[in-house]
Design brief:
This protein has 317 residues and is an alpha/beta fold. Helix content is 43%, strand content 21%. It has eleven helices and twelve strands. It has helices spanning 50-69, 81-85, 89-100, 109-124, 161-168, 176-196, 211-220, 237-249, 252-255, 269-282, 295-306; strands at residues 2-8, 12-19, 27-35, 74-79, 105-106, 131-136, 141-146, 153-157, 205-208, 222-225, 231-236, 287-290. The strands form two sheets. The chain has a seven-stranded mixed beta sheet with strand order 8-7-6-9-12-11-10, sandwiched between helices. A five-stranded mixed beta sheet has the order 3-2-1-4-5, sandwiched between helices. Helix 4 (109-124) packs across helix 11 (295-306). The longest helix is centred in the middle third of the chain and has 21 residues, at 176-196. The protein is globular, with a radius of gyration of 19 Å. The chain starts with a strand and ends in an 11-residue tail after the last helix. 45% of the residues are buried.
């Protein structure tokens, strides 16, 4: 069966088309990304501007056309924090749904964390034991921990890379004072989450699972042998910290010359680095490993689970 997952996030509208079967791993067929950086379209009253809404509608229309061209049987469409929290969110959702011709599942922060945690657990396997997860989007940072398929504790805080850039690092380059202000804000915002996680056992694996974290790992991390010949990336907190002053001094146009920093991440990468390093420090994490699976794969896996596998098609019982 060919499924599609449409993730309408704060940075991008991302369509993943994958061939799936119950009991099997999803095989990606097509991946289509439209870069929006939705935070640019937020008005002072908290609404998404008409330009922003139209950009979302255009991206949804394009995703629907691609899904139809790819013979997608079921499109699982989700929206995360920027759409969820906009003052005109209900109107924006209605217009996206009209463009898609179907309902949009609007995920709360904790649901985002749970879907992402499921994907990470499946990627690393049961033998990975206790997992601590960090996931940085454009609007929010999700943190989750547990030893099962769903986390025992999950939290979402408004520390996404796009939001933090708009609120704390609007200048280009931002400079040291602005970076210090963001760090102090992140420490304060994370304090209740640290408290929430106190009873969790020491993690066997600390995992980062977003595009921003993958970019930072390519910049400041190093590869290590994975399973079955695959390569995994590790990101040490110390190396990440040493890059922050350099990133903050560079204008955005120069950052995309650095390893791993794509054009759509140049503005937000400083905020992502500051927030991630602050979270790692707060949770006493020296190093994390990067998961290639995240929210979209979690949504896909959850849907596959809901398919009946008791009666394989074409076989009599």
């Amino acid at each position: 069966m060919r499924l599609g997952v449409l993730d309408i996030g704060s940075n991008t509208v991302h369509l993943l088309v994958a061939d799936v079967r119950p009991g099997g791993r999803p095989h990606a067929a097509t991946s289509q990304r439209t870069v929006l950086r939705l935070m640019r379209y937020l008005e002072p009253d908290g609404t998404i501007s008409e330009h922003g809404v139209q950009a979302l509608v255009d991206a949804a229309t394009q995703a629907r056309a691609t899904a139809e061209a790819e013979n997608v049987v079921e499109l699982l469409a989700t929206a995360t924090s920027a759409v969820r929290e906009a003052a005109n969110g209900a109107e924006v959702i209605a217009r996206i749904e009209a463009a898609l011709g179907q309902e949009l599942q609007v995920l709360g922060g904790e649901s985002e964390a749970r879907f992402t945690f499921l994907a990470v657990r499946r990627w690393f396997g049961w033998s990975a034991g206790q997992i601590l997860l960090f996931d940085i989007g454009g609007g929010s940072l999700e943190i989750a921990a547990g030893s099962d398929e769903l986390p025992d504790v999950a939290a979402s805080v408004p520390l996404g890379a796009g939001r933090a850039t708009v609120e704390f690092l609007p200048e280009d380059p931002p400079g040291e004072t602005a970076v210090d202000a963001l760090r102090a804000h992140a420490e304060k915002t994370l304090a209740p989450v640290v408290e929430l996680m106190t009873d969790q056992p020491r993690p066997n694996h600390v995992v980062g699972s977003s595009k921003a974290i993958r970019s930072l790992a390519k910049l400041a991390g190093y590869p290590s042998p994975g399973w079955s010949g695959s390569e995994r990336m590790l990101l040490p907190r110390q190396a990440l910290g040493s890059w922050i002053p350099r990133l903050a001094r560079l204008p955005a146009s120069a950052r995309q010359e650095l390893p791993g920093i794509t054009a759509d991440r140049t503005f937000q990468i400083v905020a992502a680095a500051v927030v991630l390093r602050t979270a790692m420090t707060a949770m006493d994490v020296d190093e994390l490993e990067v998961s290639p699976w995240a929210l979209r794969e979690g949504v896909l896996l959850r849907y596959i689970e809901s398919l009946s596998w008791w009666e394989p098609s074409g076989h009599a019982s």
